[in-house]
Amino acid sequence: MFYVEIYLISSSPKVHFIAIFLNYLYTLLLQKSAMARKAKVNRKTKETSINVEANLDGNGSYKIDTKIGFLNHMLEQLSKHSLIDLKIAAKGDTHIDLHHTTEDTGIAIGECIKKALRSSKGIKRYSHALIPMDETLTRVTIDVSNRPYLIWKVKLKVEKLGEMDTELFKEWFQAFSQAAGITLHIENIYGDNSHHIIESCFKGLARSLREAIEIDKRIKNKVPSTKGVL
User: Fold this and answer.
1) CATH number, domain at 114?
2) Which of 49, 53, 159, 222 yields a CA-CA distance of 20 to 30 A from 36?
3) What is the extent of the structural domain holding 18?
4) Where residue 12 falls among pLDDT bands split at 50, 70, 90?
5) Mapped to the 3 state alphabet, what secondary structure does 134-184 carry?
6) Beta partners for 100?
7) Residue 197 has pLDDT above 60, yes or no
8) What is the Cα–Cα distance from 160 to 156, expressed in whole angstroms?
9) Checking phi first, is residue 228 left (phi over 0); if not, alpha (psi -120 to 50) or beta?
């Protein structure tokens, strides 16, 4: 609890009332700022430079530039369907290949979401989503547990989507789950079109995140674990 005292020099009851009101208003503003689930991460290596901003209680607005068109498209889906506001700017050694930029973007987004969650007090923690996309159906289940683990049961029939090697998608989800501290199970139940399959994976993650990190008003000041910490 924050409390700030503002003093106005006067014996007037009116001025005294204004001082009390300003104290109350400023205290509320400080509390709101402290409780905001927002974070920034700047990750720089010899291979990549990634800047991420996330607002977990946003409306799904995004500004994303990874220099990889198909990855941009997937991360836009992640933001739009999770309602997490995302700003991502990435530069990497794409003249070599897209591996480092893809993986490090997953790491930076995961770190940013974990940072914004803070102690994870009040979150629902568990969630799952079944995502249909035309002929495709994919199941995503998550536990925001600080115990990262990826189960990836996804088979793709092509080697590339856009300019991306399709093997890089598992790398992205692996990097994200490790950095975010999330147990993440992704299973494509059936599907033919590789674009649909991968997009349904990102949308499934988005919808699962949206519910799992939502605040449950019944336990808003408690960590959802009998250990008392995640």
Assistant:
1) 3.30.230.40
2) 49
3) 1-35
4) low
5) CCEEEEEEEECCCCCEEEEECCCCCCEECCEECHHHHHHHHHHHHHHCCEE
6) none
7) yes
8) 9
9) left
Mean pLDDT confidence for 131-137:
98
- The per-residue pLDDT for 26 is 43
Q: Per residue in 114-128, pLDDT tens?
A: 999 998 999 999 999
* 68 and 181 together in one domain: yes
Q: How many domains does the chain have?
A: 2
Convert the pLDDT of each residue in 73-116 to its tens digit: 999 999 999 999 999 999 999 999 999 999 999 999 999 999 99
Q: For residue 98, give both structure tokens.
A: 């897209």
Q: Are residues 21 and 132 in the same domain?
A: no
- 82 and 27 in a single domain? The answer is no
Q: Amino acid identity, residue 202? A: F
Same domain, 52 and 78: yes
Domain assignment present for residue 150? The answer is yes
Are 125 and 191 in contact by the 8 Å Cβ rule? The answer is: no
- Are residues 53 and 88 part of one domain? yes
Q: Model pTM?
A: 0.84
Which H or E run includes 133?
A: strand 126-133
- Residue bearing tokens 């199970």: 185
- Residue 197, both tokens: 């399959």
Q: What is the pLDDT of residue 30?
A: 39
How would DSSP label each residue in 18-80? HHHHHHHHHHHHHHHHHH--EEEEEEE-SSEEEEEEEETTS-S-EEEE-S-HHHHHHHHHHHH
For the record, the structure tokens of 100 come out as 């480092």
